[in-house]
Amino acid sequence: MSTLTAPEAPTRTYNAYSAPLWQRLLMTRETAVIALTAAVILYSIVNVPNFDGPLTLKFLLQDIAPILLIALPMTLVIITGEIDLSVASIMGLSSVLLGVLHEGGMSVPAAALLALLAGLVCGALNGFLIAYVGLPSLAVTIGTLALFRGIAVGLLGTKAITDFTEKWSDLATGTIGETKIPLVMIPFAVLAIGFVVLLHFSTFGRGVYDIGLNDEAAHFTGVDVARTKMVLFLLSGVVSALAGIYFTLRFGSARGDNATGYELQVIAAVLLGGVSIFGGRGRLHGVLAGVVLIGVLSSALRLESVTVNVTNIIVGLLLVASVILPNVLAWASTRLPRKATPAAPRESHTPENAASAGVSTRGSDS
């Protein structure tokens, strides 16, 4: 018998099968949204009257500030495959609580703290029903949307509370120094950095992606699925309440119907920014670009005297397109012909082939 030593198989590396770095960085949905946002801004500056005025940046950032805030936790919620439709009604409830408590003699900081606590309770209710009871988030948050809005309107009725001091209104509408950047961008920047670290640079964030891809597999790999979802809905409730407080102080008015319809703009921005509605995919920089894109479109259309209803139609179309387009592109990519890679010829382990490859053929006489 002969002992044959086969040639060593070539080692396969990740780089041999991955796209080039520039392609992985630039050929993404997030990059496309950023490019589209830049194009819309340039077009608006050139073609929309007064868009490049000195106050446009200030009002634009003030308008999108609540959406920017709520989009941070909403991104993580949708990446897990869930959704929170109650964020706008939590804004309205926190607005009413701030107004009612302040009218009753409480200082604005103390009333704001209790409004944040109310947002935490709202998020805890959503999180408990979804994470621990196991109810679908769509059904739960549709129900709590009506519940929280009903409580807000029930507490205040149809009247508005407007007796906020100018100090707090000026704080909400003030800018950083001599710039046109609103002060609200400071807490937003702090929260944005925190959420970026949480999602992209922590084990908690990796668990969020794992849950979105497959929550059962995530559970068996050690991710506490229920606790993770609970934390995300708590964050969503608190940040929504914070956005409601800012909204109230900026306009100097606490009403039960404040921020009605904001959930549509938040979800549209998140999905437009590259987050998959099915979970497991998305990045925060794309979401922030999506928020800015919707804000720029709304501002430009308003300067062109386009009605709010038409703007809502455009935002709705963007939402539908952001859901359908990735699936269409994925389907189209599967229909494209692919060049087959020829298989490498297999060498037979005969003494002749082994000898030609320089392989030892020692054996014993039978």
Automatic annotation (TrEMBL):
InterPro entries: ABC_transp_permease. It is found in: Cell membrane. Keywords: Cell inner membrane, Cell membrane, Membrane, Transmembrane, Transmembrane helix, Transport. GO terms for cellular component: plasma membrane. It comes from the Bacteria. GO terms for molecular function: transmembrane transporter activity. It is a multi-pass membrane protein. This is Autoinducer 2 import system permease protein LsrD. Residues 340-366 are annotated as: Disordered. The keyword Cell membrane applies. The keyword Ion transport does not apply. Signal peptide: none annotated. It comes from Nocardioides zhouii. The chain crosses the membrane at residues 31-48, 60-79, 113-132, 138-161, 181-201, 230-249, 261-278, 284-301, 313-332.
